[in-house]
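pinned: reference chain
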Amino acid sequence: MRALIAAVAVLIAAPASAALAPGAKAPDFSTQGAIGGKPFLFSLSSALKKGPVVLYFFPAAFTPGCTMEANAFAEQTADFKRAGATIIGVAADKIDDLKRFSIKECRSKFAVAVATPSMIRDYDVALPKLAGRSNRTSYVIARDGRIALAHSDMDYREHVAKTLATVRTLKR
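pinned: its C-alpha cells
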C-alpha cells in the first residue's frame, strides 16, 4: 500500500506535460548547435561526460518569453558552471536563427541547438497549439543519463531557479 501511495504522489508531483519523470533514462541525441554564433555538433552523451546537463526546450527564438528565459539563463551561466553543469537550450528553429539568438539573447554564454522532431517526440514536449514546436520544459539530466528534474511551465520565470537548485544537489 505504501508503494502505491508513493507512486501516486510521484505522478501528482510530476509536471503534467513532461513525460520523462525523475529517474527515467534521458534519450540520447546529437543535433546542430551554436554558441557565440559559431556552429557545432552537440551530443548529449558527450556533454554528460563532463557533468550534468540542463536541457531546456523553448517554443521559438526571439519571442518575448523565450528571449527573457535565455537572458535569465545567461545571467546565471557562471553559477551553473561552478556547479559543473552544461546548459543547452533547444527549439525547432533553423540553425541560422539560433546562431543569431546565441549571440544576442544567450549573450554568447551558453549554447542553443535545433530541437528535431524526434527530440520533441522522445522528450514528450510537443506544443499542441503549434505543430512542430515544443512547449517550455526544462530537464536536468544527471551524469548517469537519468532525469533529475522535469519542470514544464510556459511561464519562464522559475526554470532557471529550479534547474540550478537541482544541479547543486547533484554536486554533493
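why pinned: Residues 41 and 79 are 24 Å apart (CA to CA). Confidence is low (pLDDT under 50) at residues 1-16.
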